[in-house]
Design a protein that fits this description.
53% strand, 2 helices, mainly beta, 311 residues, single chain, 4-stranded antiparallel beta sheet
Protein backbone atom coordinates (compact mmCIF):
# COMPACT_ATOMS: atom_id res chain seq x y z
CA UNK A 1 0.00 0.00 0.00
CA UNK A 2 1.53 3.37 -0.99
CA UNK A 3 1.61 6.35 1.33
CA UNK A 4 -0.91 8.47 -0.61
CA UNK A 5 -3.48 5.67 -0.53
CA UNK A 6 -2.88 5.13 3.18
CA UNK A 7 -3.41 8.80 3.97
CA UNK A 8 -6.73 8.78 2.13
CA UNK A 9 -7.72 5.63 3.97
CA UNK A 10 -6.89 7.24 7.29
CA UNK A 11 -9.11 10.20 6.39
CA UNK A 12 -9.46 12.37 9.49
CA UNK A 13 -7.17 10.19 11.55
CA UNK A 14 -3.66 11.43 11.95
CA UNK A 15 -1.14 8.84 10.83
CA UNK A 16 1.78 7.55 12.85
CA UNK A 17 4.53 5.95 10.80
CA UNK A 18 6.99 3.54 12.34
CA UNK A 19 8.59 1.87 9.36
CA UNK A 20 6.91 3.06 6.15
CA UNK A 21 5.13 -0.25 5.67
CA UNK A 22 3.50 -0.09 9.10
CA UNK A 23 0.88 2.64 9.02
CA UNK A 24 -1.45 3.21 11.93
CA UNK A 25 -4.10 5.86 12.54
CA UNK A 26 -5.06 7.89 15.59
CA UNK A 27 -8.46 9.55 16.01
CA UNK A 28 -8.69 13.29 15.43
CA UNK A 29 -12.28 13.83 16.55
CA UNK A 30 -13.66 15.83 19.46
CA UNK A 31 -14.15 15.45 23.20
CA UNK A 32 -17.01 17.15 25.03
CA UNK A 33 -19.31 16.97 28.04
CA UNK A 34 -22.92 16.05 27.25
CA UNK A 35 -25.43 15.98 30.09
CA UNK A 36 -23.99 13.53 32.65
CA UNK A 37 -21.52 11.87 30.27
CA UNK A 38 -18.09 12.65 28.90
CA UNK A 39 -17.82 11.76 25.19
CA UNK A 40 -14.72 11.45 23.04
CA UNK A 41 -13.76 10.02 19.67
CA UNK A 42 -11.37 7.10 19.46
CA UNK A 43 -10.85 3.87 17.50
CA UNK A 44 -12.49 0.49 18.13
CA UNK A 45 -11.26 -2.07 18.73
CA UNK A 46 -8.09 -0.47 20.02
CA UNK A 47 -5.88 -3.50 19.51
CA UNK A 48 -6.91 -4.12 15.90
CA UNK A 49 -5.38 -2.79 12.69
CA UNK A 50 -8.83 -2.88 11.04
CA UNK A 51 -10.46 -0.48 13.50
CA UNK A 52 -13.23 2.03 12.83
CA UNK A 53 -13.95 5.36 14.47
CA UNK A 54 -16.02 5.12 17.62
CA UNK A 55 -17.38 7.43 20.30
CA UNK A 56 -16.48 6.47 23.85
CA UNK A 57 -18.46 7.51 26.90
CA UNK A 58 -17.74 7.83 30.61
CA UNK A 59 -20.69 7.74 33.00
CA UNK A 60 -21.12 9.29 36.45
CA UNK A 61 -19.40 6.30 38.09
CA UNK A 62 -16.31 6.69 35.90
CA UNK A 63 -17.09 3.60 33.84
CA UNK A 64 -15.87 3.83 30.23
CA UNK A 65 -17.65 2.07 27.35
CA UNK A 66 -18.18 2.29 23.62
CA UNK A 67 -21.22 4.42 22.72
CA UNK A 68 -21.30 4.56 18.90
CA UNK A 69 -19.20 3.02 16.15
CA UNK A 70 -18.86 3.81 12.46
CA UNK A 71 -19.28 0.91 10.06
CA UNK A 72 -16.68 2.43 7.74
CA UNK A 73 -12.91 2.08 7.91
CA UNK A 74 -10.84 5.25 7.56
CA UNK A 75 -13.66 7.08 9.33
CA UNK A 76 -14.08 9.68 12.03
CA UNK A 77 -16.76 11.37 14.13
CA UNK A 78 -16.98 15.08 14.89
CA UNK A 79 -19.14 16.29 17.81
CA UNK A 80 -20.68 19.63 18.70
CA UNK A 81 -23.33 20.90 21.12
CA UNK A 82 -25.69 23.81 20.60
CA UNK A 83 -26.37 26.35 23.34
CA UNK A 84 -29.69 24.51 23.82
CA UNK A 85 -27.62 21.43 24.76
CA UNK A 86 -28.58 19.50 21.62
CA UNK A 87 -25.87 17.14 20.38
CA UNK A 88 -24.92 17.07 16.68
CA UNK A 89 -22.57 14.54 15.09
CA UNK A 90 -20.83 14.25 11.74
CA UNK A 91 -19.76 10.80 10.58
CA UNK A 92 -17.10 10.95 7.87
CA UNK A 93 -15.12 8.47 5.81
CA UNK A 94 -13.17 8.19 2.57
CA UNK A 95 -14.89 6.39 -0.33
CA UNK A 96 -12.17 4.67 -2.38
CA UNK A 97 -14.37 3.70 -5.31
CA UNK A 98 -15.51 7.30 -5.86
CA UNK A 99 -12.23 8.87 -4.71
CA UNK A 100 -14.18 11.29 -2.52
CA UNK A 101 -14.74 12.11 1.15
CA UNK A 102 -18.25 11.38 2.42
CA UNK A 103 -20.19 12.84 5.34
CA UNK A 104 -23.50 12.46 7.15
CA UNK A 105 -24.94 14.80 9.79
CA UNK A 106 -26.98 13.57 12.77
CA UNK A 107 -28.81 15.02 15.76
CA UNK A 108 -29.25 12.97 18.91
CA UNK A 109 -32.91 12.48 19.78
CA UNK A 110 -34.36 12.28 23.28
CA UNK A 111 -34.67 8.49 22.94
CA UNK A 112 -30.87 8.35 22.43
CA UNK A 113 -31.27 7.52 18.73
CA UNK A 114 -29.39 9.34 15.99
CA UNK A 115 -31.71 11.18 13.61
CA UNK A 116 -30.25 11.91 10.18
CA UNK A 117 -30.31 15.65 9.45
CA UNK A 118 -28.33 15.52 6.21
CA UNK A 119 -27.93 12.07 4.58
CA UNK A 120 -24.68 10.89 3.01
CA UNK A 121 -23.16 13.56 0.77
CA UNK A 122 -19.91 14.05 -1.11
CA UNK A 123 -17.91 16.27 1.20
CA UNK A 124 -15.89 18.45 -1.16
CA UNK A 125 -15.48 21.23 1.44
CA UNK A 126 -14.42 18.88 4.28
CA UNK A 127 -17.24 20.11 6.50
CA UNK A 128 -16.33 19.60 10.16
CA UNK A 129 -12.77 18.41 9.59
CA UNK A 130 -11.50 21.23 11.82
CA UNK A 131 -14.50 21.04 14.11
CA UNK A 132 -17.87 22.70 13.66
CA UNK A 133 -20.23 24.90 15.67
CA UNK A 134 -24.02 25.04 15.71
CA UNK A 135 -24.92 28.72 15.81
CA UNK A 136 -28.03 30.07 17.55
CA UNK A 137 -29.34 30.93 14.08
CA UNK A 138 -29.36 27.21 13.23
CA UNK A 139 -26.46 27.55 10.80
CA UNK A 140 -23.49 25.21 10.88
CA UNK A 141 -20.16 27.02 11.10
CA UNK A 142 -16.91 25.37 10.02
CA UNK A 143 -13.34 26.29 9.13
CA UNK A 144 -11.46 25.79 5.89
CA UNK A 145 -7.87 26.99 5.65
CA UNK A 146 -7.83 30.68 6.71
CA UNK A 147 -11.56 31.39 6.81
CA UNK A 148 -14.84 30.47 8.47
CA UNK A 149 -17.86 29.35 6.47
CA UNK A 150 -21.46 28.31 6.97
CA UNK A 151 -22.78 25.20 5.23
CA UNK A 152 -25.68 25.73 2.84
CA UNK A 153 -28.50 23.19 2.44
CA UNK A 154 -27.27 22.21 -1.03
CA UNK A 155 -23.81 21.34 0.29
CA UNK A 156 -22.12 24.54 -0.86
CA UNK A 157 -20.48 26.95 1.55
CA UNK A 158 -20.86 30.67 2.23
CA UNK A 159 -18.17 32.82 3.75
CA UNK A 160 -19.02 33.91 7.28
CA UNK A 161 -18.54 37.61 6.69
CA UNK A 162 -19.18 38.47 10.32
CA UNK A 163 -15.76 37.28 11.46
CA UNK A 164 -12.82 39.57 10.76
CA UNK A 165 -9.94 40.00 13.19
CA UNK A 166 -7.44 41.96 11.17
CA UNK A 167 -4.53 41.19 8.93
CA UNK A 168 -2.73 38.79 11.24
CA UNK A 169 -5.57 36.28 11.40
CA UNK A 170 -5.82 36.10 7.61
CA UNK A 171 -2.24 34.84 7.47
CA UNK A 172 -2.93 31.98 9.87
CA UNK A 173 -4.73 28.77 9.05
CA UNK A 174 -7.58 27.86 11.36
CA UNK A 175 -6.76 24.51 12.98
CA UNK A 176 -9.99 23.93 14.90
CA UNK A 177 -13.12 25.63 16.19
CA UNK A 178 -15.48 24.78 19.02
CA UNK A 179 -18.59 26.32 20.55
CA UNK A 180 -18.07 27.29 24.18
CA UNK A 181 -20.69 26.80 26.87
CA UNK A 182 -21.49 30.54 26.85
CA UNK A 183 -22.18 30.52 23.10
CA UNK A 184 -18.89 32.12 22.09
CA UNK A 185 -16.68 30.51 19.47
CA UNK A 186 -13.13 29.36 20.24
CA UNK A 187 -10.90 29.58 17.16
CA UNK A 188 -7.52 27.81 17.24
CA UNK A 189 -5.19 29.31 14.64
CA UNK A 190 -1.64 28.33 13.70
CA UNK A 191 -0.11 30.55 16.41
CA UNK A 192 -2.96 32.37 18.14
CA UNK A 193 -6.20 31.40 19.84
CA UNK A 194 -9.21 33.70 19.53
CA UNK A 195 -12.61 33.90 21.20
CA UNK A 196 -15.33 35.59 19.13
CA UNK A 197 -19.04 36.06 19.73
CA UNK A 198 -21.70 34.95 17.27
CA UNK A 199 -21.77 38.42 15.74
CA UNK A 200 -18.15 37.93 14.75
CA UNK A 201 -16.69 40.36 17.27
CA UNK A 202 -13.35 39.31 18.72
CA UNK A 203 -13.62 39.07 22.50
CA UNK A 204 -10.13 37.87 23.40
CA UNK A 205 -6.90 36.78 21.77
CA UNK A 206 -3.86 34.89 23.02
CA UNK A 207 -0.92 35.51 20.70
CA UNK A 208 2.12 33.44 19.72
CA UNK A 209 1.20 30.36 21.76
CA UNK A 210 3.26 27.95 19.65
CA UNK A 211 6.74 27.82 21.17
CA UNK A 212 10.01 26.45 19.76
CA UNK A 213 10.19 22.67 19.85
CA UNK A 214 12.05 21.19 22.79
CA UNK A 215 12.38 17.74 21.23
CA UNK A 216 12.01 15.92 17.91
CA UNK A 217 9.33 17.25 15.59
CA UNK A 218 6.25 14.99 15.73
CA UNK A 219 4.17 14.04 12.72
CA UNK A 220 1.88 16.96 11.77
CA UNK A 221 4.43 19.34 13.24
CA UNK A 222 4.52 21.80 16.10
CA UNK A 223 0.93 22.69 16.82
CA UNK A 224 -1.68 23.05 19.53
CA UNK A 225 -4.14 20.32 18.65
CA UNK A 226 -7.01 21.35 20.92
CA UNK A 227 -8.02 23.95 23.50
CA UNK A 228 -10.95 24.81 25.73
CA UNK A 229 -11.82 27.85 27.84
CA UNK A 230 -13.71 28.27 31.11
CA UNK A 231 -13.83 30.92 33.85
CA UNK A 232 -10.93 32.91 32.44
CA UNK A 233 -8.60 29.90 32.08
CA UNK A 234 -7.44 28.50 28.75
CA UNK A 235 -6.40 24.83 28.63
CA UNK A 236 -4.18 23.47 25.86
CA UNK A 237 -3.48 20.02 24.40
CA UNK A 238 -0.08 20.98 23.03
CA UNK A 239 0.78 18.32 20.48
CA UNK A 240 4.12 19.72 19.31
CA UNK A 241 5.82 19.99 22.69
CA UNK A 242 3.93 17.04 24.19
CA UNK A 243 2.44 19.04 27.05
CA UNK A 244 -0.82 19.57 28.91
CA UNK A 245 -0.99 23.28 29.73
CA UNK A 246 -3.15 26.05 31.11
CA UNK A 247 -3.04 29.84 30.86
CA UNK A 248 -4.68 31.36 33.92
CA UNK A 249 -6.69 34.55 34.31
CA UNK A 250 -3.50 36.55 34.84
CA UNK A 251 -1.99 35.27 31.61
CA UNK A 252 0.51 32.99 33.34
CA UNK A 253 1.28 29.83 31.36
CA UNK A 254 1.64 26.67 33.41
CA UNK A 255 2.55 23.07 32.60
CA UNK A 256 0.11 20.52 34.02
CA UNK A 257 1.93 17.48 32.64
CA UNK A 258 5.04 17.15 30.48
CA UNK A 259 5.50 13.94 28.48
CA UNK A 260 8.95 12.74 27.44
CA UNK A 261 10.02 14.98 24.54
CA UNK A 262 11.49 11.96 22.74
CA UNK A 263 8.63 9.67 23.69
CA UNK A 264 5.52 8.59 21.80
CA UNK A 265 2.82 10.40 23.81
CA UNK A 266 0.92 13.14 21.94
CA UNK A 267 -1.94 15.17 23.52
CA UNK A 268 -4.83 15.83 21.16
CA UNK A 269 -8.04 16.69 23.06
CA UNK A 270 -9.17 18.68 26.11
CA UNK A 271 -12.54 19.65 27.63
CA UNK A 272 -14.38 20.20 30.93
CA UNK A 273 -16.75 17.81 32.69
CA UNK A 274 -18.24 17.74 36.20
CA UNK A 275 -15.84 20.30 37.64
CA UNK A 276 -12.65 18.76 36.23
CA UNK A 277 -10.53 19.26 33.11
CA UNK A 278 -9.96 16.19 30.92
CA UNK A 279 -7.02 15.66 28.57
CA UNK A 280 -6.74 12.84 26.03
CA UNK A 281 -3.36 11.70 24.70
CA UNK A 282 -2.27 8.71 22.60
CA UNK A 283 0.84 6.80 21.68
CA UNK A 284 1.94 3.82 19.64
CA UNK A 285 3.07 0.87 21.76
CA UNK A 286 6.45 0.01 20.26
CA UNK A 287 7.60 -1.14 16.86
CA UNK A 288 6.78 -4.79 17.55
CA UNK A 289 3.11 -3.91 18.15
CA UNK A 290 2.80 -1.18 15.54
CA UNK A 291 -0.86 -1.91 14.93
CA UNK A 292 -1.95 -1.03 18.45
CA UNK A 293 -2.98 2.40 19.73
CA UNK A 294 -2.88 3.18 23.43
CA UNK A 295 -4.83 6.06 25.03
CA UNK A 296 -4.41 7.99 28.23
CA UNK A 297 -7.33 10.02 29.59
CA UNK A 298 -6.33 12.27 32.48
CA UNK A 299 -8.48 14.48 34.71
CA UNK A 300 -7.18 17.59 36.47
CA UNK A 301 -8.45 19.93 39.17
CA UNK A 302 -6.54 22.12 41.64
CA UNK A 303 -3.21 20.37 41.12
CA UNK A 304 -4.88 16.96 41.42
CA UNK A 305 -3.98 14.86 38.37
CA UNK A 306 -5.68 11.47 37.93
CA UNK A 307 -5.42 8.75 35.30
CA UNK A 308 -9.01 7.94 34.30
CA UNK A 309 -8.73 5.55 31.35
CA UNK A 310 -5.95 3.69 29.58
CA UNK A 311 -5.38 0.42 27.75
Amino acid sequence: MDISTSIKNAFLFFLVLLPLDNIIAHPLGDMLSYKDKLLWVYVCPIKSSSHQACIMQMDTKGSVSEWRRSMHSGSDWMLSKSTDDDLYLIERYYNHSKDVHMGQLYKLAKNNQLNIIIPWYEDHHRFGESGFAVLDSGEFLFASRHRLYTRNNDGTKSSWQLYSSGTSSKKQKIRRIRLLSDGHILIIQEKDIVIANQKGKEIRRWQDLVQPLEGPKPLMGNRIMDADYLDGNLYLAYWGNRRLEMIDQKGQRKTIKQYDQKGPWLPHAVTFHSGRTYFLSSHLQGVSSAREIYPELISFNNQDLKLVWSK
